[in-house]
Amino acid sequence: MTHTALRALLGVALLAPSFVLVPTAADAKLSTAEVRMAKTVDAEYERSVALLQKLVDQNSGTMNFAGVDLVGRMMRAELEPLGFTVEWKPQTAANRAGHLIATKKGRAGAKKLLLIGHLDTVFEKDSPFQKFTRKGEEAEGPGAGDDKGGMVVMLAALRAMQAAGTLKDAEVEIMLSGDEEDAGDPIEVARADLIAAGKRADVALDFEGLSIEDGKDMGSIARRSSNSWTITTTGKTGHSSLIFSSEYGDGAINEMTRILAAFRKELPEPNLTFNTGIIAGGSSAALDADAVRATAAGKGNIIPQTAVARGDFRTLSPEQTDRVRAKMQAIVAAHAPGTDAKISFDPGSYPAMAPTPGNKALLDALNAVNKDMGLEPMAALDPLKRGAGDISFVASDVDGLVGLGTSSRGDHAPGETVDLDSIRRQAKRAAILMTRLSAAK
């Protein structure tokens, strides 16, 4: 669905008092069904925490295919009793475990909700950080926040809707990828099912973690792209006393230095970051097959023949991505004397999720829920403060909202800690929001 179409779905007067889903009286309260949803989330809180512990204690590092499959089975066991048809889609062609796709029909004409999460974590089987440890209303564990906490919020919201009688009318598709933390290759294969689901959907809701800033919950309506690049420079090798001569030129390392210095000077613009993550140079230099390690050989009295560097850049729109890529290519092409250089861009980049009016409309709808729950409104998070994610693959087809999962800190590192109490408010928000969106004409 286009952004314009979503605004029509939500009502062109979304911010006006007449918006159908937003009570207008100053003392607006939750409906009877919404109160029931909130009570159900509270009543099932310990059940949700117990499920989170079960999910966390099963390792599902991206490359632990058996572990990812087992977490998928656990989620299937929760979703089927809610009326979902669940399918496991193997991803052998992308060298990954697979994805879990669950669908449920709703009333005729109901808006299609796409719920996004992921089964895998960054913690592989050899990580020393493996178990869930509860400490009052917090818990440590691999993936406790990212994204097993998010999946628990999703399930708690759906169970609350079922208890209140609103789930039966909702048209829902759930996409739980098995490789969000390390996408399979080729990415066109690894994300084909997600992209197809986005084209079917009217709204996309991403259950990755809730962002908090200065103690306040934030709404996320944008995510930047993630684009990887590799530069290889070459020069004419010889005795170091001949460097910079007309015959031998600047050498490969100086050419690489010129390029990276020009990036720093010429690329900066709003919402862009760029980084060089690994570099090597000398008489010989090369990256390994995974491009995470480098080898090099050389001596101080030899002009370096080869240098290689790899990094990324992140943008807020496809147009910005194209513009930055063209600038980088032009900088690389302006070779220093006696050198050559080439830049390549990985085909498996994550696209940007731009902050569209439709995404803002969804945040406004969520803030209407917050108002009726007695919670503070959520401002839009600066996209510089959030990384890339799966929802970006559907952002060109459907408007979306990010951050419906749990609040956590220290994600992707030993000691990752989830705020268990955030399950309550996030599941209530999600259940009420999904119910209201499903009821919209």
TrEMBL record:
Names of required cofactors: Zn(2+)
Pfam family, one: M20_dimer
Signal peptide: 1-28
Classification via InterPro entries: ArgE/DapE_CS (IPR001261), Bact_exopeptidase_dim_dom (IPR036264), Peptidase_M20 (IPR002933), Peptidase_M20_dimer (IPR011650), Peptidase_M20A (IPR050072)
PROSITE patterns reported in the protein's UniProt record: ARGE_DAPE_CPG2_1
SUPFAM superfamilies: Bacterial exopeptidase dimerisation domain, Zn-dependent exopeptidases
Keywords, alphabetical: Hydrolase, Metal-binding, Signal, Zinc
Superkingdom to which the source organism belongs: Bacteria
MF (Gene Ontology): hydrolase activity; metal ion binding
Domain Peptidase M20 dimerisation as annotated: residue spans: 221-338
Name used for this protein in its record: M20/M25/M40 family metallo-hydrolase
Organism: Sphingomonas alpina
